[in-house]
Design a protein that fits this description.
Blueprint: E1 4-5, E2 10-14, H1 18-30, E3 34-38, H2 41-50, E4 55-59, H3 67-77, E5 82-87, H4 92-100, E6 105-108, H5 113-126, E7 130-131, H6 133-151, H7 156-163, H8 167-174, H9 182-192
Length: 203
């Protein structure tokens, strides 16, 4: 099965150019993203506080509060949010500063629409919004196994020995790399002394 967007990611465009904002809204809505925009830093930050955006497209040069300051405040509000920087005034220093501060991409205006869409898709993939549904399922099961094992204070090696499974298998399950069979999950649940349903919670 190919990769697909699990949810409809919410994108906020923060740029003082209204025409650009409306253009990006149209382009990215067509690509199946939920898009809103703000024309200055303060209103963009208010939107981020009020709504759960996964990705921000941010202009560096804006009147009043510039993009560098907005970027810093965004990361304080939500360190996990993806940020793509836009600028019509590229400089090596600015690029290095923003990327070191955990920006996901840096695009120079004017840009081709397909390049912007490509950057958005790459960022969505990087922050976990674009993935194979089976990968997401494996990841959730693995997180549950690890959390419950840690809660029971059982080392990985001990769990493997008592369940009659290899350390590599359980490690792969916990890391979301291996799909666990029902029998594997049943054995793990037995050793952890929990209901099997707890291992698939949240799926």
């Amino acid at each position: 099965m190919g990769k697909r967007i699990i949810q409809k990611p919410k994108i906020l465009v923060i740029d003082d150019d209204k025409n650009l904002c409306e253009n990006l809204e149209q382009i990215l809505t067509y690509e199946d993203y939920a898009v809103k925009y703000a024309l200055d830093g303060p209103s963009g930050l208010r939107r981020i506080r009020a709504e759960n955006f996964q990705l921000v497209i941010l202009d560096l040069k804006m009147p009043g509060m510039d993009g560098v300051e907005v970027f810093g405040r965004i990361k304080k509000l939500n360190p996990k949010i993806g940020v793509i920087i836009l600028t019509a005034y590229p400089s090596l220093d600015t690029a290095i500063t923003t990327l070191k501060n955990d920006a996901n991409d840096y695009i120079v205006k004017p840009f081709k629409n397909e390049d912007l869409v490509k950057a958005v898709k790459a960022t969505a993939k990087k922050i976990g919004l674009l993935e194979n549904p089976f990968s997401r399922l494996n990841k959730q099961v693995g997180q549950n196994v690890r959390a419950l094992r840690m809660q029971k204070n059982i080392p990985l090696k001990e769990l493997a020995e008592r369940a009659g499974l290899s350390v590599g298998l359980i490690s792969g399950v916990e890391n979301g790399k291996n799909a666990a069979s029902v029998l594997t999950l049943y054995r793990i649940a037995q050793i952890l002394d929990i209901k099997l349903s707890l291992l698939v919670e949240g799926i």
